Amino acid sequence: MQTIALIGNPNSGKTTLFNALTGTSGYVGNWPGVTVEKKEGMMGGHIIVDLPGIYSLSPYSPEEKLSRRYILDEQPDLIIDVIDATNLERSLYLATQLAELGRPLLLVLNMADLLEKEGIKIDTKRLSQMTGSPVVIVSASRGTGIDELKEAIEQSLSEKHTALCPLFSNFIERYISQIIKDDYLHAIPKGRPVRWAAIKLIEEDELFLSSMPPLPEEFNAYLTKVRAELVAHYDDDPEAIIIDQRYKVAEHIAKDCQIKKQKEKSFNFDSIATNRIAAIPLFILIMGAVFYLSIGLVGGYTTPILENLFGYLGSQVFTLSDTLGVHPLLSGILVDGIIAGVGAVLTFVPQLFMLFLLLSILEDCGYMARIAFIMDRMMRTMGLSGK
Ligand code: GDP
Ligand code: MG
Question: Quick one: which of 88, 92, 170, 287 has the most CB atoms within 10 Å?
């Protein structure tokens, strides 16, 4: 019995594909220690795990940590990267990181049904050559390409090929090949490729370093020197340099493998939502609207009504307990404690209801995934994730 991990950006269709592959055998649990949903199911005698959606394997959020740890520690026999084919470049940023993990990788281009409408053509053969991974094109929601995918999965499981690692600039590659030679790299836990480890050492990835024995003084001094030379050459910090190079690789592959038809003046929301200049003002505008609708509009109406209601209820209970001769301590607990306390909380419920309703609409239509991507690069320089 072999294990298959489904991974990919949020909203790329992992869960839809998971359901298409596993039928009704899927079951939902929780990952130990965190409130992140874990879905497991069976397909043709193999276990399939639906991992949380992530943008990057440099983990900042619990989901990213979990997905990275799962792939490194559990060593699934096959990683399936579910890609929203209409957003190839964004998805390849993650794919290139998955390729470094030294596990068999299969790229699934989902949302095939939308490609024609969006005027995009993808050369899957070329994509497969450039990434060194098989590529299958499907539509998870319509169920097209699922049989081909099942075949490709069986083939990948028996072949156990590994993906091509994306190459960085020569300047960085020279250091990587130097670092790989050091004896310290023998200490890396089983299943973690040396090249990946070398990159993590350049990035000074804390999660990785904490899983390793302390760095010998000499090697540490060498790494510090490498980082200083990178900073001097690129005028940026090592982690940001690697991130930037990864984006460049993704951009390069995407450019090479897809043809985008110039659409005839049709309004394309995506081009504005992820536009470098317009995205942030638009985001602020949308969030402003969300807050106005929930806190201003809904809250403005319901807060006074609920406040009056609980005020009235309180005074009624107070007069009632007064006529009944209830001890002031008890009526105080009832009126000023319970009624006023619960009332204060309940006055927020309509606003929160509206707020979460609007946020889940934004999440479902995929806007949140886009804005998280836009914010990711910026937030990462502050050590946070776009999410
Ligand atoms: P996840 O976040 O990766 O698990 O994504 P989901 O499986 O929840 O899917 C996100 C959205 O994409 C849902 O609204 C799906 O109905 C939709 N979706 C999934 N697959 C396809 C597809 O092949 N074509 C289209 N048009 N929509 C899809
Ligand atoms: Mg999902």
Answer: 92
